[in-house]
Request: fold
Amino acid sequence: MKYNSVFDIIGPVMIGPSSSHTAGAARIGKAAHSLFGRAPTWVKIHLYESFAKTYKGHGTDFALVGGLLGFDTDDTRMKDALKIAKERNMQIEFIEDSAAVNHPNTVRLKIGDVGDSLELVGVSIGGGKVEITELNGFELRLSGNHPAILIMHNDRFGAIASVTSVLAKHEVNIGHMEVNRKDVGKEALMVIEVDQNVDDDILRELEKAEHIIRIVKINS
Amino acid sequence: MFRTVQELVEIAEMKAISISEVMIRQEMEVKEKTREQLYEEMEKNLQVMEKAIEDALQGVESVTGLTGGDAVLIQKYIHEKNPLSGPLLLDAVSKAMGTNEVNAAMGTICATPTAGSAGCVPGTLFAVKNQLNPTREQMMRYLFTAGAFGFVVANNASISGAAGGCQAEVGSAGAMASAAIVEMAGGTPQQSAEAFAMTLKNMLGLVCDPVAGLVEVPCVKRNAGGSSLAIVSADMALAGVTSRIPCDEVIGAMYRIGKQMPSSLRETGEGGLADTPTGRWLKDKLLGLTS
Reply:
């Protein structure tokens, strides 16, 4: 089931005007911000279908940027996000993309700074709820209903066991887990949905586990 | 977890509890929260709704100037004249439109189930409240009941205008409101389902055609339609009128109609009212100004 809480339906509390085009967009931006770990200095925003046609009127533009700046859906600075981003020298480019997508409210975010970059695809499915469907070329399915840990790692044996043993030691229960790789022995991604939020101490311990490149945590 | 309205009603009847109670118990179990925690969260949502209506009745205006002020006009009319549709119905219309005027003005609202359709549930609640005098807890239960029905729609069809047209947004919102009104007025769970079905049936096929892509025209006034229909259907259900097509089948029909709608009529701002001479003129004028 896509929705599992009454507060997905009665909520979120948000700044208008559109739950899918502003609140959802802000949440996708915020997810990218969390995954990147900081506000990027440059962003390329590819918008599709309904997002591409109406992003100015619906405030999808400032909502995405607000999220990328780390704002929550009810942050009153949201409508000034474009101005704030400009003041902080964030380079922003909006691209109305005509490629075919599975859902009308789809956005591809390419973000980065001098040291690093990240690319993700987010879908706003309605009522402010979002799904992240792709991260750095990896397909993924995050329900958003539970906290999740994303772990970029090298495709070697022992990598998965080293992660799950740390989680087991701290009695963190895994609700859903997926492993994807680009090719044998290359970069791979573990997506782990857990039942409770994971402390930063545990994340630091995971970072030291074998074959791990980078870890990010997404709270639901 | 209940997946359909039929299951929802059956659970309520079997355990002899209300729809809101089914929703509360499920949420407690799935989210591992206490009843107090749920009430606390819902109370916050309720306060946002109340504040949005208060602001609207003071008068708001959107950045474009396309919407705002109609909620105030209607309140004035209710107090000065003798409205043909009755003061309660028109009060709901005013408060529903007002909530969406606040939304269009980029104020703070609670999506129910979406921002564009955020007026129907609180608008009817704060109008019906004056006649039924509910406790604060009953007002929160109103939102849990509305949420329970919205939950079924979101999981079996859609609550997104981009995916299913306005029938999925204001249609769902108005139908959710009618189910909640029935419970607050002392109707049975089955009567809530009948009211929901009757409202949604009357909203089937409603397209999402926002002028200039803005959540203003016709969204604000569609909330007037959704909220008034919610009250009428609730009264019909309480009178004993039933829907010949079961509630879940109406939701199924809504889903399939949404799938058959062309993309021009699903929140792209390309068809319908957006594609009228005035709609196109407004778009050129407004987006020319802002970009």
About this structure: The radius of gyration of chain A is 17 Å. The first helix of chain A runs from residue 6 to 9.
